Amino acid sequence: MATSDLIGSSPNFRTVLDAIEMVASADCSVLVQGETGSGKEVIAQRIHNASPRRHNRFVAVNCAAIPGALLESELFGHERGAFTGAVAQTVGRFQSADRGTLFLDEIGDLPVELQPKLLRVLQEQQIERLGSGRAIPIDVRVIAATNQDLWQMVQEKKFRADLYYRLNVFPIRVPPLRERKEDIPLLVEHFVEKFAQRQGKSIDHIPDEVMELLKSHEWPGNIRELQNFIERAVIVTTGRVLRPLIDEFRAARAARVLTLADAERAHITETLRETNWVVGGQNGAASRLGLPRTSLLSRMRRLGISRESFGVRTSLPEPENCRMSDGCLPVSHAPGLARAVSF
């Protein structure tokens, strides 16, 4: 998705846009968290384009796509002869992004042995190429992204806490498409126009039936799945009215197997409803589910569960005799508490 694809006006998405505006000029590290296909790289690109670094390079690295043995060289570069096959000096991604922005996608897949080296680079703003003892100063802003729960990985000793704190200076959570369904018509219209132009077609009408069907879908693949569906629809359309393969779409929805995440989301949501959306305390959802309160909050963030996404008012009164020190806290307060727990 191009930067122009950052489209939406729903309250959940407006929160993201406001966060981008606030942090763009701050020149601090940003951690973008969201499900696969939700547009994390687009968010990072927008931050860069709105920052004082916009006239310099935006360099992206997918930490999950490069083997661990090669990732260190990819990030920091190497000298000739540093290892077998190193026939020439190579500039790493950090140096390529000097005075610009480095986007580290899928940061949760960064090998454990590389995490202290990345931390040192972030702290000292200098690198050493493999095979060289000379420090090279750099001026790079780092934006990291992940679809994993990094704080949970810290608890499980799979991700360094000090690196997490260094990256998580300003966190941005990108809502999944199921939490911003008001934006689907705008996205559909944008993708239809984009792909129709690419295919040399003129499509100027989207039937109400089609739009309602698209709005009712859960879109587990988020914006990327919607984009791919619209591209296929444009390809098969022969007139001026969008004619996607609706029967195929309906069959796929009917045959969709309930995933473990779907089942977990449904079970947690039902328990929260039974407890009037209270997480902690003796009669809270965490106790009923047999989980620590912090673990339940972490799972809720990962699964995109919140009062607001289910249309529940956030002004419900707290239960009587319920003190914050007892861990009894309505879910409407959970995001702020989750940030506090993370630190």
Descriptive overview:
This protein has 3 domains: 3-175, P-loop containing nucleotide triphosphate hydrolases (Rossmann fold, 3-Layer(aba) Sandwich); 178-255, Helicase, Ruva Protein, domain 3; 260-342, no CATH class. The protein has helices at 11-23, 40-49, 68-76, 93-96, 115-124, 150-155, 161-167, 184-199, 208-216, 222-236, 246-255, 260-274, 285-289, 293-303, 334-342; strands at 30-33, 58-62, 77-78, 90-91, 101-105, 126-127, 136-137, 141-146, 170-173. The protein is of the alpha/beta class and 343 residues long. Helices cover 43% and strands 9% of the residues. The chain contains 15 helices and 9 strands. Helix 8 packs across helix 10 (222-236) and helix 14 (293-303) crosses helix 15. The longest helix has 16 residues, at 184-199. Residues 313-343 have low confidence and may be disordered. The strands form 3 sheets. A 5-stranded parallel β-sheet has the order 2-5-8-1-9. A two-stranded antiparallel sheet has the order 3-4.
For the structure shown, list the relevant keywords:
5-stranded parallel β-sheet, 43% helix, 3 domains, disordered C terminus, Rossmann fold, globular, two-stranded antiparallel sheet, alpha/beta, 9% strand, Helicase, Ruva Protein, domain 3, 9 strands, 343 residues
Mean model confidence by pLDDT: 84
Query: How would you classify the quaternary structure?
Result: single chain
What Rg, in angstroms, do the CA atoms define? Answer: 23 Å
What are the secondary-structure elements, in order, as H or E?
A: HEHEHEEHEHEEEHHEHHHHHHHH
Distance between the termini: 33 Å
**Tally of strands:** 9
Can you give the helix content as a percent range? 40-55%
So how many helices?
A: 15
Number of domains: 3
Instruction: Report the structural category.
Output: alpha/beta
Level-1 CATH class name of the largest domain: Alpha Beta
- Most strands sheet: 5 strands, parallel
CATH superfamily of the largest domain: P-loop containing nucleotide triphosphate hydrolases
**Spatial sequence of strands, sheet with the most strands:** 2-5-8-1-9
Q: Outline, from the CA principal axes?
A: globular
**What amount of the residues lies in strands?**
5-15%
Question: What is the annotated CATH architecture of the largest domain?
Answer: 3-Layer(aba) Sandwich
Low-confidence stretches: 313-343
